[in-house]
Amino acid sequence: QVRVVESGGGLVQAGGSLRLSCAASGRTFSRYSMGWFRQAPGKEREFVAGIRWSGGTTYYADSVKGRCTISRDNAKNMMYLQMNSLKPEDTAVYYCAAEKEELRGGSRWYGDFGPWGQGTQVTVSS
Asked: What span, in angstroms and rounded, lies between the C-alpha atoms of 11 and 121?
Protein backbone atom coordinates (compact mmCIF):
# COMPACT_ATOMS: atom_id res chain seq x y z
CA GLN A 1 0.00 0.00 0.00
CA VAL A 2 0.95 3.59 -0.58
CA ARG A 3 -0.15 5.90 2.22
CA VAL A 4 -0.45 9.60 1.55
CA VAL A 5 -0.61 12.98 3.28
CA GLU A 6 -1.94 16.01 1.41
CA SER A 7 -0.94 19.62 2.03
CA GLY A 8 -0.91 23.02 0.39
CA GLY A 9 -4.56 23.97 0.44
CA GLY A 10 -5.83 27.34 1.55
CA LEU A 11 -8.00 30.35 0.82
CA VAL A 12 -7.35 32.13 -2.44
CA GLN A 13 -9.17 34.67 -4.57
CA ALA A 14 -10.60 33.75 -7.93
CA GLY A 15 -7.88 33.82 -10.55
CA GLY A 16 -5.21 32.87 -8.04
CA SER A 17 -3.00 29.82 -7.82
CA LEU A 18 -2.20 27.06 -5.37
CA ARG A 19 0.21 24.14 -5.39
CA LEU A 20 -0.94 21.02 -3.61
CA SER A 21 1.53 18.42 -2.42
CA CYS A 22 1.07 14.74 -1.72
CA ALA A 23 3.69 12.99 0.38
CA ALA A 24 3.65 9.22 -0.07
CA SER A 25 5.12 6.50 2.07
CA GLY A 26 6.28 3.15 0.82
CA ARG A 27 9.33 2.03 -1.10
CA THR A 28 7.24 1.08 -4.15
CA PHE A 29 5.73 4.52 -4.80
CA SER A 30 7.26 4.53 -8.28
CA ARG A 31 5.22 1.45 -9.24
CA TYR A 32 1.83 3.12 -8.64
CA SER A 33 -0.13 5.52 -10.75
CA MET A 34 -1.50 8.39 -8.69
CA GLY A 35 -4.49 10.64 -8.77
CA TRP A 36 -5.99 13.80 -7.35
CA PHE A 37 -9.68 13.90 -6.51
CA ARG A 38 -11.89 16.49 -4.88
CA GLN A 39 -15.12 16.50 -2.97
CA ALA A 40 -17.36 19.48 -2.39
CA PRO A 41 -20.07 19.47 0.31
CA GLY A 42 -23.03 17.37 -0.73
CA LYS A 43 -21.29 16.09 -3.85
CA GLU A 44 -19.55 12.87 -4.79
CA ARG A 45 -15.79 12.61 -4.91
CA GLU A 46 -14.68 13.46 -8.43
CA PHE A 47 -11.56 12.90 -10.44
CA VAL A 48 -9.31 15.90 -11.05
CA ALA A 49 -6.03 14.62 -12.49
CA GLY A 50 -3.95 11.48 -12.79
CA ILE A 51 -0.38 10.53 -13.58
CA ARG A 52 0.93 7.12 -14.54
CA TRP A 53 3.50 5.34 -12.43
CA SER A 54 6.24 6.14 -14.96
CA GLY A 55 5.30 9.80 -14.92
CA GLY A 56 5.14 9.92 -18.68
CA THR A 57 1.39 10.24 -19.08
CA THR A 58 -0.97 12.66 -17.40
CA TYR A 59 -4.72 13.06 -17.76
CA TYR A 60 -7.22 15.60 -16.51
CA ALA A 61 -10.89 16.21 -15.94
CA ASP A 62 -12.34 18.57 -18.53
CA SER A 63 -13.20 21.01 -15.76
CA VAL A 64 -9.53 21.63 -14.92
CA LYS A 65 -7.78 20.92 -18.21
CA GLY A 66 -5.51 23.80 -19.15
CA ARG A 67 -5.55 25.20 -15.62
CA CYS A 68 -3.92 22.39 -13.64
CA THR A 69 -0.69 20.45 -13.97
CA ILE A 70 0.00 17.18 -12.17
CA SER A 71 3.55 16.01 -11.62
CA ARG A 72 5.50 13.56 -9.50
CA ASP A 73 9.00 13.08 -8.18
CA ASN A 74 9.55 9.37 -7.65
CA ALA A 75 12.92 9.97 -6.01
CA LYS A 76 11.21 12.00 -3.28
CA ASN A 77 7.95 10.02 -3.08
CA MET A 78 6.06 13.22 -3.87
CA MET A 79 3.24 14.24 -6.15
CA TYR A 80 2.02 17.73 -6.90
CA LEU A 81 -0.95 19.56 -8.37
CA GLN A 82 -0.34 23.08 -9.63
CA MET A 83 -3.65 24.88 -9.94
CA ASN A 84 -3.93 28.19 -11.78
CA SER A 85 -6.81 30.49 -12.69
CA LEU A 86 -8.80 29.11 -9.80
CA LYS A 87 -12.56 29.50 -9.81
CA PRO A 88 -15.09 29.43 -6.95
CA GLU A 89 -16.35 26.10 -8.28
CA ASP A 90 -12.93 24.61 -7.54
CA THR A 91 -13.72 24.92 -3.83
CA ALA A 92 -13.53 21.45 -2.29
CA VAL A 93 -11.45 19.13 -0.16
CA TYR A 94 -8.70 17.74 -2.35
CA TYR A 95 -7.43 14.21 -1.89
CA CYS A 96 -4.59 12.24 -3.39
CA ALA A 97 -4.28 8.50 -3.59
CA ALA A 98 -2.50 5.70 -5.39
CA GLU A 99 -4.22 3.22 -7.63
CA LYS A 100 -4.76 0.01 -5.70
CA GLU A 101 -2.99 -2.09 -8.33
CA GLU A 102 0.60 -1.38 -9.24
CA LEU A 103 1.90 -0.76 -12.76
CA ARG A 104 -1.49 0.26 -14.06
CA GLY A 105 -2.93 3.67 -14.79
CA GLY A 106 -5.61 5.65 -16.48
CA SER A 107 -8.45 5.08 -14.06
CA ARG A 108 -10.69 8.02 -13.16
CA TRP A 109 -12.88 6.12 -10.73
CA TYR A 110 -12.27 6.75 -7.05
CA GLY A 111 -13.01 3.11 -6.26
CA ASP A 112 -9.74 2.12 -7.95
CA PHE A 113 -7.72 4.29 -5.56
CA GLY A 114 -6.80 4.13 -1.91
CA PRO A 115 -6.10 4.32 0.92
CA TRP A 116 -7.03 7.98 1.20
CA GLY A 117 -5.41 10.74 3.19
CA GLN A 118 -7.20 13.36 5.26
CA GLY A 119 -7.40 15.79 2.35
CA THR A 120 -6.58 19.47 2.12
CA GLN A 121 -9.19 22.21 1.89
CA VAL A 122 -9.15 24.57 -1.08
CA THR A 123 -11.44 27.57 -0.89
CA VAL A 124 -11.72 30.03 -3.77
CA SER A 125 -13.48 33.28 -3.06
CA SER A 126 -15.21 35.29 -5.77
From this structure: 8
